Amino acid sequence: MEQLWTMTVSDLRQRVRDRSVIIFAVVVPLALMVVFNLVFGGTEELELEPVTVAAAVPDDDELGRVVVAALGEVGAPEVTVQDVDAAEVRGLAEAGTVQLGIVVPEGFSEALARGEGPVLQLVEGDDAGIETDILVAVVQGVLDQLAAGTAAAAAAGELGLTHEQVATVARQAATAGPAVTLAEGEASDEQLSGGATLVAGQAGLFLLFTVGFGVLSLVAEREQGTLARLRSMPMRPGLVVAAKALVGFVLGVVATTVLLVAGSLMFGVNFGAPLAVGVLVVCAVTAATSLMLVVARLARTAEQANIVQSILAIALGTAAGAFFPLTATGVVGQLLDLNPVAAFIRGLGITSGGGGLGDIGVPVAYMLGFAVVVVALSRLLPDRGREL
Amino acid sequence: MRPVLAITAVELRRFLRDRSNIFFVFIFPLVLVLVIGSQFGGGGSPGRVVLVGEGSDLRTAVVTALEDDGVAVALAAADDALEQVARGRADVVVQLERADADAFAAGGDVTLDVVASSQAGAPATVERVRTAVQAVTVQQGQLAALTAAGADEAAAQSALGRVAGALDEPRLEVVDVDEVAQELSGLGQFDVGAASQVLLFVFLISLAGSTTLIQARRYGVVGRTLTAPVSTTQLLAGQALGRFVIALFQGAYIMAATALLFGVDWGNLWLSAVVLAAFAAAAAGAAMLLGSLLDNENAAVGAGIGLGLVLAALGGGMLPLELFPDSLRGVSLATPHAWAYEAFAEIQRHDGTLADVAPQLAVLLAMAVALLGIGSWALRRSLSRAM
C-alpha cells in the first residue's frame, strides 16, 4: 500500500508541475465555457414574448375578421392586433415594429365561399421567433375550419337544402363533430439549461483528456526506460498500473469538480444534490480511466497514445453533445446513451431537475457498465508496447 | 529560394506523415460537416411528435394529419416517449388511449393528453398538434351538420366526396422578411457548415501543429539547419511558408471534399481560394507565434486547441455570425475568422466579386502580415533561448 501511495504522490507532483495538465484540465475548458456561453447563450429563450400583429382586412370581409379575431384570442403568446392598410404590412414587419403581418385579400369571404382557394398572406417580421410560428399554426387551423364549412355548405347545396339550412350547415360544420381537446401535462424535466449543458459537456469532454495525463504517463515511462526500473523493484507489477490509474482518477475527480463548481458559479447553474452529483463524477471518472487503460495497451509510443486518446475524447464528447446537442432516437439514440460522457450529462440533467441518488440509477449503470466492459477488454487486448 | 522551399517541403512531409492527421485533418472535418448539416441544415423539421397508443383509426388519422403538416412523427411506448420528451429528444408526446380511440370511433368527444418538452420549439409543435387533431374531426363535423339539417347520412357522405375535389381550399402564404432568415435562405444544407469548418480547422490544425516548431527547436533541427549555408531569414521564411502550405492544404481539402461529397457551392472558386489563402497566411503567422512563445509541446497542443476553438466560436466558425447578438458581433471582428466568414458569405450567397470582398481581404492580409511579422520576430528570439 505504501508503494502505491509513494508512486501516486510522486506522479501527481510531476503532473501538477507540468503546466499542460492545468491548461488542458481547467484553463481550456473554462475558456470554452465562457466563450460558448457568450456565443450560444442568447439563442435559447423559452419565455413566450408578447406579439404585435399588423392586420390588413378589407372593411366588409366577415371571414377575414374571423381569422384575425382568432389571433386575438390566443392566450400564449399574448397578441395585440393593429389594424393597418395592406400596403403598410410588409414595411412594419421589415422594420420589426410588428412580429407578424396578415394580409386578407379583397373578396376573401366570397372567394372562400365559392371554393376558389383565396390566398391569405402572412409576413413574419424581423426578430420573429417561436411566437409567430405558433400564430401561423393557429391561422392554419382557422382556415381549415372555414374550408370545412365551405365544403359542407357546398354539399348541402348539392343535396337541395334550403338557403337557411345551407347557412346553418356552413356555420356548424367546424363544431358539430366530436370535440377533440388537448390536456397538457408536464414532463419530468431531465434537461439541462443551455448554460448547464455547456458546463457539463465541456467537463465531460475534457475529463477524457485529464485522466489521460495520469494513465498515459505509463507509456511515456516505458519509452524513457523508467518503467523497467520500476518493475525491477520488489513489488507486484500490477501496482505500477494501479498507481497510474489512481493518478488519472484523482486528477479527473479534482478537475471535474473544479469545472462543475466554477461553471455553476459563473453561469448561475444548479446541478442539484451534491452527493448525487459527486456519485456521477466518480462514475464518469471511473469510466474515463478505464478507457485510458485500453489506450495504454494499444499505443506503442506516447505520441500514438495521445492520438488515440484525442480521437476517442473528441468522438465521445461530440457524440455526447458537448459542442452541439444531437437529437437521435431509436437505435442511434440508444447507442449514444452507452457513451459515458452522454450518461454523465444525462445524470446531471436528472440531478438538476431535482433527482436524488435513487433517480440516477440508469446513467450510473451505463457508466459503471462501460468501465467493466472496457477494463475486461483491456485485459484481453495484447500489450503492444511490451516488446519495446 | 531553394533552402526555403526545402524547409517548406519538409514541414509538409512531416504533416502528411503524422498519422493522427488522418483522422483530424481528413476524416473529422467531413464528419462534422455531415453531422451539422443533417442536424441543422435545410430548415429542419417543424417539430417532432411521439405518439403513444395502439393502432386505431384515430391514430392513423392523427399521424396522417401531422405528417401532412411536415411534422416528424414517431411511435413509442409510454415510458419511452415521456423520457424522450424529458430529455428534449422530442417536442411533444400525444397519448392516444384505447378509450380515446373507441370514443372517437363512436363519434364521441375525446380528450388527448399531451406532454410538451421544455425546448424552445415545443409550444409551436403543440399548436400544430392542436390544428392536426381539429382537422381529424372535420369530416365528422361536416356529416353531423348535414344530418342535423335533415340530410340522409349516405347521401351527405357522397355529396361531401363529390364537392371535395371541386373546391379549392384557402391557402396560407408565409413570407419571412427577417434579415437573418433571408440571408440564410436558399443555401444548401451543408453550405454554412462547410464554410464554418474550413475556418475552424485551418486555424485549429495550424495552431495545434505549432508543436513541430517546438520539436524542431528542442531536437536541434533548427540549429543544424543554420550550420548549413542557410540564412536565418531563409529559415524563418521556410518555416512561415511551411505553416502556410499546411493551412492552405487543410482548407483546400475541406473545400474540395465538401464540394464533391456534399455538393457545397463555393461560388467563384478563384475568389474563394484567394480568401482561403489570406486566412491561411494569418493562421500560419499565429502558429509561428505560438510555437515560438511556448517551449513545451503538451502545453502548445492544449493552448492551440483551446485558442483554435475559442477563436472559431467567436468568429462564426460554430454559429453563423448573423445569429450573434450585436455586442458580440463587434468582438468577433477581432478574429480573422469573422472577416473570412463574411468574405465567404459574400461569395457563396451573393455572387460577390473581388471588389465586394476587397475590404475583408484587406483586413485579412493586414492581420496575416502582422501575425507573420510578430511570429518571425518571436521565432528569431526563441532561437537564442535555452530549452
From TrEMBL, chain A:
Domain of life of the native organism? Bacteria
Q: Where are the transmembrane segments?
A: 21-40, 199-220, 241-269, 275-299, 311-336, 360-381
Any GO MF annotation of the entry: ABC-type transporter activity
Q: Which residues form the ABC-2 type transporter transmembrane domain?
A: 19-378
Location(s) in or outside the cell: Cell membrane
What is the first-listed, main subcellular location in coarse terms? Answer: membrane
Q: Tell me the first and last residues of the signal peptide.
A: none
Q: Which UniProt keywords apply?
A: Cell membrane, Membrane, Transmembrane, Transmembrane helix
How would you describe this protein's topology in the membrane? Multi-pass membrane protein
Output the Gene Ontology cellular-component terms. plasma membrane
> Which InterPro entries did the record assign?
ABC-2_transporter_component, ABC2_TM
Q: Does the keyword Cell membrane apply?
A: yes
- Under what name is this protein listed? ABC-2 type transport system permease protein
Origin organism of this chain? Answer: Georgenia soli
Lineage from the top down? Answer: Bacteria, Bacillati, Actinomycetota, Actinomycetes, Micrococcales
UniProtKB/TrEMBL annotation, chain B:
Cite the PANTHER family for this sequence: MEMBRANE COMPONENT OF ABC TRANSPORTER YHHJ-RELATED, TRANSPORT PERMEASE PROTEIN
Q: Which organism is it from?
A: Georgenia soli
Q: Which domain of life is it from?
A: Bacteria
- Primary subcellular site in the record, as a coarse category: membrane
- Its recorded name reads ABC-2 type transport system permease protein
Could you give a GO molecular-function term held by this entry? ABC-type transporter activity
What are the annotated GO cellular component locations?
A: plasma membrane
Q: Which UniProt keywords apply?
A: Cell membrane, Membrane, Transmembrane, Transmembrane helix
Q: How does it sit in the membrane?
A: Multi-pass membrane protein
Q: Output the InterPro entries linked to this UniProt entry.
A: ABC-2_transporter_component (IPR051449), ABC2_TM (IPR013525)
Where found in the cell? Cell membrane
Residues passing through the membrane, by range: 21-41, 194-214, 244-264, 270-294, 301-321, 361-379
**What region holds the ABC-2 type transporter transmembrane domain?**
22-376
